[in-house]
Amino acid sequence: MINYPASKLPDVGASIFTVMSALANEHQAINLSQGFPDFNCPEPLIHLADKYMREGFNQYAPMAGMPQLRHKISLKTEKMYGFSPDPDTEVTVTSGATEALNAAITAVVKPGDEVVVLEPCYDSYAPVIRLCGGAPMYVPLSLPDFSIDWDQVKKRVSSRTRLIIINTPHNPTGAVMSRQDMDTLANLLDGTDILVLSDEVYEHMVFDGQEHYSALQHPQLRERSFVVSSFGKTYHTTGWKVGYAVAPAPLTNELRKMHQFITFCTATPLQLAIADFMEEETHYLGLPDFYQAKRDFFLEQLKQTRFEFIPSAGTYFQLVKYDGITDAYDVDFARHLTTQTGVAAIPVSAFYHDKTDNKYLRFCFAKSEETLRAAGEKLKSV
Fold it and tell me: Which domain of life is it from (predicted)?
């Protein structure tokens, strides 16, 4: 008999996204759970990828990313946030934002370090911290608007704090950090060596006239931050898995040491296609209106149901509160909604380390109007 080693993550199974998508497929439910569009990416982007594949750009890319793409990222960052990172020493192309998050955490977190994590949160943060020997230090966001209680954050900061992870616009809640939030964070970290990991993959999805405020816009934060973004979100290409990280040269150097042994590089023709398509600024500049229209359309459907909601301020997710319908545990209610009503959602307890159940579900509205209308019809029956 072989004595297999104990699991490094004994409490981690298949992600809730995998579970709910599989359940949706099994029951032929409308899948508003996992965060991906049900419409295609821009046709010119497909043609560009095909062009570069046919021209023979099918071998390894440079580890840090194709120079053309890193240069375009630098130009776009300057246009959007008034800061021009050095494309050679401060920009790294990764195989999706999740890989960038992994590489950033792995680069700086050592055994015994603490990392402040705001909950609910994307489910990859804590497992990577734990694999590095670090300890996630959880701070719950304040209900019902999921704002940050900075006094609670301050209480969690100690001499062992290595990193604070922020996410704006925020998955799963749709909350958006303000300039004042960034100022407060900068003041909190002043005089320390604590680093910041800013997950900004939904940077172009901010609604109702608000603006996304990036850590890259704040000089005091910029010098201590990894900032992560995603072309998958921006160009409706989640399956391409192309993301990037911007960080000061010393942090980028450490991140690349991790990146080269995680994926080494990202698909060459996809990088070149994205670099060319970035010239079409109207696409990403138009995303706030594009997704706000989808949010508003979905909310019109929800108004005819018994679910309660505060309109999402960003991302392509909408939280709904269902405690006026049932007191069922959110995982059980999400399964019931999928199997009996025919609409799949994500239970928000999955984004808490202790499975806190505040009776919220998360719906993805990155779908066609036909899909959202059909889902709305089914949800009216609940």
Answer: Bacteria
